[in-house]
């Protein structure tokens, strides 16, 4: 019986920070499931199916990594996938307070699982999906933050949104 860890998030889009966490965590566990949230209060640029497909493409070279969609409570998804650990990435100290609260709630909802925190590499600490989306929407260069394919599809998406917006 191996150790399965769930790395949940919106991944809209998946960034170098996310892939850094996956790349460093994958060798530590038998199976890592990147769990893409379908039901979210966030206004996402990509549909959940697009986010799953993009993440699967970018992470395809990791033999023990699966990308799956989940809806509802992450702990229900973790139980269904027989995961005993939840992986959370930390960029800065400011992330820790929220993540610590989330870990406590997950522990209350699923006492049989623990949360493991992994700080992102220093060179990615300033990257967030929301900042990447904003920079792309404003015409900035996102090459250093995402895989080239992600850059291409994100720029196409924000360009289409910009062109579809009614004039003011």
Task: Write up what this structure looks like.
This protein has 168 residues and is of the alpha/beta class. It has one domain (4-123): HUPs (Rossmann fold, 3-Layer(aba) Sandwich), CATH 3.40.50.620. Helix content is 43%, strand content 18%. The chain has six helices and five strands. The protein has helices at residues 16-25, 48-59, 74-80, 93-109, 129-137, 148-164, and strands at residues 4-9, 31-37, 65-70, 85-90, 114-119. Strands 3-2-1-4-5 form a five-stranded parallel beta sheet, with helices on both faces. The longest helix has 17 residues, at 93-109. The protein is globular, with a radius of gyration of 16 Å.
Helix coverage percent = 40-55%
> What Rg is obtained from the alpha carbons, in whole angstroms?
16 Å
Can you tell me the CATH architecture?
3-Layer(aba) Sandwich
- Biggest sheet layout: 5 strands, parallel
End-to-end CA span: 59 Å
Q: In terms of quaternary structure, what is this? A: single chain
Tell me the total number of β-strands: 5
Q: In terms of topology, how is this protein built?
A:
Layout: E1 4-9, H1 16-25, E2 31-37, H2 48-59, E3 65-70, H3 74-80, E4 85-90, H4 93-109, E5 114-119, H5 129-137, H6 148-164
Could you give a short description of this structure?
The chain has 168 residues and is of the alpha/beta class. Helix content is 43%, strand content 18%.
Descriptive terms for the model:
single chain, 168 residues, alpha/beta, Rossmann fold, five-stranded parallel β-sheet, 6 helices, 5 strands, globular
